[in-house]
Protein: AAA+ ATPase domain-containing protein
Amino acid sequence: MTRHLRIANAGQVRREIGDWAETESARDMRRSIDMVRASSDPAITMISAGTGVGKTTEIQRLCHEIGSEAMYVDVARGEGTPWNFAARLAQCWPEYQRPVFNGLADAREVLAHWISRPTVLDNWTRRILLVDECQYLAQKDRKTGLVGSALEWMRALGETGEFHIVMCGDMNLTRIVATMPQLESRIIRPVVIPHVSRADLAAVLEGTAFMQSEMINTLHKMCVLKGGLRHVEKVTRHAQRFAGGATPTLAHLEAAISDMKLMPKGEF
Structure:
C-alpha cells in the first residue's frame, strides 16, 4: 500500500534529471539523420515514436547542433492539407507572412527555392527539413477527398528543392506511411519507438539518487502508463520535496507518483 507522506520544507530542489541524456533512442534517431545527411541525393527518413519518448526534444537539439543547414517546423492539427502546410512553411520567412501563391505548383517552386537556398553566400550545402507532428499531414482534403496529400506534397517539395526531409510523428505516422507505397519506398532507415525503454529511463536517471533498480522499475511502469518521460522530472522533484533534505527513497517516490495521480492505487 502506498504511504502518503507530509511534504517537507525542502528548499532548493536539484534539477539534474532535467538535463539532456544520451539515450539509446536518441542515438537511434541521430543515426538515421546522419545517414540522410550523408546521402549524395535528396533523402527522406521517418521517426515515429510514442508519447514522451523524447522525439521532439532530440530532433530540436539536433537541429540546433546542425545549425543553419537544418530547418525545423512543427504542424498542428488542422494544418494537414497541402495548402495549409504550404502556408505554415511560408510563415518561416517574414517576406511570406501573408503568402500569395498561384496554386500549389507555384507554392512548391517558391518554397523549394527558399528552403534550399544557401544561408551563406557561395557556400551551398544540401539542407535538411525536419517536420514534427507529421501525423497531422494525413488530414482529409475536403476538396479532393484524399487523405495524406500533404505528405506526398512534402515529398515532391523536397525533390523540387533537392533537400533532405526528416518526417517525425507519433505512432500513427507508421500506420499512415504504410498505406502510401510511393512515399514509404523512399524512406531510409525508419526509426520506430513505441514506448520509453527501461534503458532510456536509466540513462535519464544516471548519476541521481533515483538510479536504483526498484525506483527505475517503478518509474518505468509509470512511463508506460502515463506520458513517457514527460513526468519523470516533475515526479522526482516532488519526491525530493517529500524527502526534505534527506536522500529520497522508494517510499518518497511512490508517494509522489500517487500524489500526482500518475498511477492507480495498487499498481506499485
Q: What stands out?
A: The chain has a mean pLDDT of 85. Residues 16-20+197-259 form one domain.
